[in-house]
Specification:
The protein has two domains: about 160 residues, Aspartate Aminotransferase, domain 1 (Alpha-Beta Complex); about 230 residues, Aspartate Aminotransferase, domain 2 (3-Layer(aba) Sandwich), CATH 3.40.640.10. It is about 40% helix and about 15% strand. The chain contains 14 helices and 14 strands. The strands form four sheets. It has a four-stranded mixed sheet with strand order 1-9-8-5. Strand 6 and strand 7 form a beta hairpin. Helix 4 runs parallel beside helix 5. The structure holds pyridoxal-5'-phosphate. The site of pyridoxal-5'-phosphate (PLP) has 12 residues, from helix 4.
């Protein structure tokens, strides 16, 4: 851990201005390469025989490059992860009463996708160390109406896919067979699992290229990955009104300008993740031994993408004291810290009403202790050090 001299030195430059947000508004970095790629794509579109032409080059090239990166058979580009999650749930053709188990400590998109597709959300509880959907809790919540398991790769780390796939395999639905595992990797692009990349396991995985994410296609965008030919055909058709598979659909296509930029961002993704990882490791060393802060956990078979640097405060500091720590970091040092995420039923009334009577005690308790501290691939070593020093200083003050 940093000593007092190092802390004083790191804090000598004062408050960050502009502040470092918990989730900076640009999650990756952009350079002239992205600008050149966008301009070239626009120039090509100026030819009236080409235009911005839907599904035109380089959208297929971007899809192929993303599939290669993940190591799966297909990738289907979409306009945003939210509609991708909707497409995934609609693929299941849920009937009233059909259940999908989704972690409660989550962003709103995945549970809303279940709800929107006519299914019943069943809240799964989480592992208190990794914040991922807990396979044992999923097992306990299975019923003959369970149709799918829907983990989110929370905050940059992989969900325990093999364990979840096994639960789905061992507990088939009476009519539809083994339960598919469909995952939300919006925050985990570039992360790893068992010597591969997130997005390779399960029936399908949905990624986001929103502006705050690990890579971005001009602020919006997403990708669905799968090894299943039928899923690929369905997603490809439904993102363009569904005529090809005789299903409901709407327009969820990506533009070729986004795809051109996506190819450049993808070529840098490993560097972005390496930078995040290196900063996180440095930060671990600077904070190690601070009793009130439990540092992020990275299970051996995963590679964390550190979309968020997710800590916990000790049990005694849950709730109000954690919130004071967040406020102090922001007010005194210009460092954003967030809570990602409390159970969604706390923040979304529509989902609370839809799941009346369901509780997830671990996610509720962890939600009072989460502390996500700003991290970004472009952060300098000195900035990272200042952030660690500020956290130690705030914790020391709050001790008394
Ligand atoms: C876990 C999670 N899922 C889904 C989404 C939705 O992504 P998009 O903005 O690309 O629709 C987000 C975005 O913040 C997210 O964090």
């Amino acid at each position: 851990m940093l000593n007092q001299t190092e802390i004083a030195d790191a804090l000598s430059r004062g408050k960050f201005d502009p502040p470092w947000r918990c989730e900076p508004l640009l999650g990756s970095t952009y350079g002239e390469e992205e600008v050149d790629a966008a301009v070239a794509a626009i120039r090509e579109a100026m030819d009236v025989s080409k235009g911005f032409g839907f599904s035109a080059s380089p959208i297929p090239e971007f899809e192929q490059a993303f599939a290669d990166h993940v190591g799966c058979k297909h990738a289907v580009a979409i306009n945003s992860a939210g509609p991708g999650l909707d497409i995934a749930m609609r693929y299941l053709n849920l009937q009233p009463g059909d259940e999908v188990i989704v972690p409660s400590a989550n962003y709103q998109a995945a549970p809303l996708a279940v709800f929107g597709a006519g299914g019943q959300v069943v809240w799964g509880d989480i592992d208190p160390r990794t914040f991922q959907l807990d396979p044992a809790d999923v097992q306990a919540k299975l019923t003959p109406r369970t149709r799918a398991i829907f983990p989110v790769h929370m905050n940059g780390l992989s969900a325990p896919m093999d364990e979840l796939i096994k639960v789905g395999h061992d507990n088939p639905h009476p009519q539809h067979g083994r339960l598919p595992v469909i995952s939300d990797a919006a925050r985990s692009c570039g992360g790893g699992y068992k010597n591969g990349k997130i997005g390779k396991k399960g029936l399908m995985t949905v990624f986001s290229f929103h502006t705050m994410k690990n890579m971005t296609t001009l602020g919006e965008g997403g990708m669905i990955t799968t090894d299943d030919d039928d899923v690929e055909r369905y997603c490809r058709s439904v993102r363009m009104y569904g005529g090809g598979v005789g299903a409901w659909g709407t327009s969820n296509v990506m533009t070729k300008v986004q795809a051109a930029v996506g190819l450049v961002q993808l070529s840098k993704l490993d560097q972005f993740i390496d930078a995040r990882h290196r900063l996180a490791e440095e930060r671990h060393k600077m904070l190690e031994g601070l009793p009130e802060i439990i540092l992020p956990h990275e299970p051996e078979d995963t590679r964390h993408s550190f979309y968020l640097y997710t800590c916990l405060v000790c049990e005694e500091w849950a709730g109000e004291k954690r919130d004071r720590l967040i406020a102090m970091m922001d007010e005194e040092f210009g460092i954003g810290c967030g809570v990602a995420n409390r159970p969604v039923y706390v923040s979304r009334k529509i989902l609370a009403e839809h799941t009346t009577g369901q509780r997830t005690p671990v996610a509720e308790a962890i939600g009072e202790r989460l502390l996500c501290v700003s991290l970004h691939p472009a952060m300098t070593d000195h900035e990272n050090r200042t952030i660690a020093a500020a956290l130690i200083r705030c914790v020391e003050r709050l001790r008394h």
